[in-house]
Design brief:
Number of strands: 4
Shape: elongated
Strand order of the largest sheet: 1-2-4-3
Helix content: 10-25%
CATH class: Alpha Beta
Number of domains: 1
Structural class: alpha+beta
Number of helices: 2
Length: 107
C-alpha cells in the first residue's frame, strides 16, 4: 500500500499544482525522455501508480496527476466542462504535446 502522502516510490518526482481556468490539478513529474501521462481509475489517486511510475522514469518523463475532484486536485464548479484539464492543465505540468505509441498503454 503506498504512503498516503506520496513519499517512498515518488521520492524522485517533483510535485506540481497546475492552475486551469476553473480549478487546480495536482500531480508529480519525474524522469527524462518522451512524456507518458498516467491517469488513475476511480476512486483512486495518482498514488495507484506507485509500483509502475518509478520504473518508467528510466526511459520516459512520467506525469501522474489526480483527476479533477480526486486527491490533491480541486473540483471545478458545477457544470464546468472537462476539456480545460487536457488542453491546458497537462501542458502546465510539463507535457507540451500528446504522445501516442500505437494505442498501447505502457506498463
Amino acid at each position: 500500500m503506498p504512503d498516503v502522502h506520496g513519499s517512498g516510490a515518488f521520492e524522485a518526482f517533483g510535485v506540481f499544482d497546475a492552475v486551469t481556468s476553473d480549478t487546480t490539478i495536482h500531480g508529480r513529474k519525474g524522469g527524462h525522455g518522451p512524456p507518458v501521462l498516467l491517469l488513475h481509475g476511480m476512486p483512486e489517486t495518482h498514488l495507484m501508480w506507485h509500483s509502475v511510475a518509478p520504473r518508467l522514469t528510466e526511459h520516459f518523463t512520467v506525469v501522474a496527476t489526480d483527476l479533477r475532484g480526486f486527491g490533491g486536485s480541486g473540483a471545478p464548479p458545477s457544470g464546468a466542462g472537462g476539456a480545460g484539464f487536457l488542453a491546458g492543465g497537462v501542458g502546465r505540468g510539463g507535457v507540451r504535446r500528446p504522445v501516442a505509441r500505437r494505442g498501447r498503454v505502457l506498463l
